[in-house]
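Action item from last meeting closed. Structure (184 res):
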């Protein structure tokens, strides 16, 4: 299945957590929404402008039912919520898997990127080698517990090429390209 540019964009603690034990993310997103520098603001703005659609899991959607940035959002779920979504983002519930959600999001995004949100959906994409890039905003905090991003990915290494590193006081912003084997 050929798809457009698929990007995981996530804030993460130094010990690998993308949310606290009760889904808290405020400390991890402070670089983007609280104490951002001009450099942080430019990184956020560049990412938002490059995005054409979002793919997220149901848990992420339940925490943010308005959808991000007014972009079309494709929610991977086995259980479509009965309550309507809020906000300006058109929401599509996808019940036939992450590949279907990515295909629909790619069509909606046109020449822009599809951004993957949520740890479980990100892991599904990583296991299936569906991501083109990882944008990791590494926040200088040890959360000690919560939801880890890089768990249960299988047994084979996933090779990455670092394409940029931008340090700011609130986060170090990494971009990686996923290196695929010759057989893919």
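Sequence:
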């Amino acid at each position: 299945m050929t798809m457009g540019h698929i990007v995981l964009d996530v804030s993460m603690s130094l010990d690998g957590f993308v949310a606290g034990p009760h889904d808290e993310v405020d400390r991890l997103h402070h670089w983007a929404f609280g104490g951002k520098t001009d450099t942080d603001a430019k990184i956020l703005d560049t990412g938002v402008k490059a995005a054409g659609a979002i793919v997220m899991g149901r848990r992420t959607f339940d925490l943010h039912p308005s959808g991000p940035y007014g972009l079309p959002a494709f929610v991977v779920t086995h259980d479509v919520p009965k309550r309507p979504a809020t906000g300006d983002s058109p929401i599509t519930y996808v019940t036939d898997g992450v590949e279907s959600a990515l295909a629909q999001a790619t069509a909606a995004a046109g020449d822009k990127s599809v951004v993957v949100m949520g740890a479980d959906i990100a892991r599904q994409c990583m296991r299936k080698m569906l991501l083109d890039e990882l944008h990791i905003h590494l926040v200088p905090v040890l959360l000690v517990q919560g939801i880890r991003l890089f768990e249960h990915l299988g047994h084979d290494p996933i090779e990455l090429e670092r394409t940029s590193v931008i340090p700011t006081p609130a986060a170090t912003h990494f971009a990686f390209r996923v290196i695929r084997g010759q057989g893919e």
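Note appended to the action item: Residues 38-50 form the longest helix (13 residues).
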